[in-house]
Amino acid sequence: MASDPELEHFRETVDCRTVLDRAGWKVDQAESIEGAVKFRRSEGEILIVTHNGRGWFDPLSKGQGLNEERGDVIALDQRLNGGSLGHVRKRLRLLSGVAPRLIPMSRPSSSQVSVPSPSAEPALRWRAAEPPRPGSAGWRYLSEQRSIPEQMIRAAVQADVLREGIYGTLWGAHHTENGDITGWEMRGPQFKGFSKGGDKSVFSLGERAADRIVVTEAMIDALSIAALERWHCRQSGSGPVLWISTGGGFGPNTERTLGALLRQGVNLVAATDRGIGGDRLAERLERLAQAAGAKFSRLVPPAAADWNDELRARPQPKAPAPAPSLSIRRV
């Protein structure tokens, strides 16, 4: 389909914040952060503007990740005001180059203000970021440099545990036992770290009520061993599995979240790297399993230093394997 010069002009010159201003929406300054401005109109109506006014999303929409309701300024105007594309053109012509007023919403008295959850800011930043998509820098990093099968990437994206940052950096969400996001692991061709101001809990994919919980030291390792077990070892009949990464830490959030998942009869597997760091994490996990009455075992890469090296050393399937029935959910 040929591009439309006028629509492209609107995308470059009309700010989503200006459209919301004119429609009577106001800025919730207390819950806005740099890069994600929250607008409210009435009870239960929230839109968040991202990308310096070029995009938006609805945090209350039913979808998650790729299914979340989001779009550009054209989709926003049509959502708010209706009508045909011709009506949209007429309205946006009047707003080209107009700066947003960013009118703040009135706040209740201090005695009526509820204290936001500690997870509110990281959750907002997470929702403002885009999930990786086929062909994107983050997707290529996982599939080409890390040899993660595309079926596994798609399953993790659908579970809403992956996002993409600048320079092709891949983000893996850490959640508490209550589902609150506390931060994310960040990994890319030139960068390795954790989100600024975030707290480590666990990155996870799989079944929350799993009989087997496999704990690794990094999200790349969690994705790697999941791929190895699902596509190479074919353990589809071994019962529900939850693959976890601690992100290289083991603080109070991590211990509490893991403890909430353990119960008598669960098999906790320390799938750690070879070396002193892996040995120490395995020892802590064994003590945690004993305290919960759970089983414990240690699993190390047979021929490599870590699980991603192990995955990359294996020959990739010649034909795409069917998508796994992971029923992936975040913890």
TrEMBL record:
Gene3D superfamilies: 3.40.1360.10. It comes from the Bacteria. It comes from Dankookia rubra. Residues 140-206 form the DUF3991 domain. InterPro entries: DUF3991 (IPR025054), TOPRIM_DnaG/twinkle (IPR034154). Pfam families: DUF3991, Toprim_2. Residues 307-331 are annotated as: Disordered. This is DUF3991 domain-containing protein.
